[in-house]
Write a structure and sequence with these properties.
mainly alpha, flat, 6 helices
């Protein structure tokens, strides 16, 4: 793998990471009670989270200029890892055997693609 592919892979991974952060912000906002439907959707955390999603989308567009198309979904699969970690740390969600098996399969797929792909 050359330096260009590594650099663009890092751009995509960063975009996936901030997208996961955006999901956390949206979930925190969804847990709050609002006076009206308008305030539920037009408040700072929600607008900020969707702004992060837009930035993440642009980072993906930039990243695909320098990485093979087949590599994108593999790198984007790391979002499941980030979301699981955030869920356990921030929302105190319980992690069960099924989630662990799923994460092992995802990580295994990423490793297999990295080594054999």
């Amino acid at each position: 793998m050359n330096k260009t592919v590594i650099m663009y892979s890092c751009v995509l991974l960063f975009g996936v990471f901030i997208s996961a952060i955006s999901q956390v912000i949206l979930k925190k906002a969804a847990l709050k009670k609002y006076d009206s439907v308008i305030k539920e959707y037009l408040n700072f955390p929600v607008i900020f989270a969707y702004s992060i999603f837009i930035i993440s989308t642009f980072l993906s567009i930039i990243a695909y200029k320098g990485i093979p198309l087949s590599m994108g979904p593999v790198l984007e699969a790391t979002s499941y890892i980030y979301v699981t970690i955030f869920g356990v740390k921030i929302f105190k969600e319980k992690i069960n055997k099924r989630k662990i098996c799923s994460l092992v399969l995802i990580i295994g797929g990423i490793i297999v693609y990295s080594v054999l792909g």
